[in-house]
Amino acid sequence: MPIRASRLDVPAPALLPLEIVARKGPGHPDTFCDAICDAIAQPPSVALSRRHLDRFGRVLHHNVDEALPRGGAVRSRATAA
Question: Is the full-model pTM beyond 0.70?
Answer without folding.
Answer: no
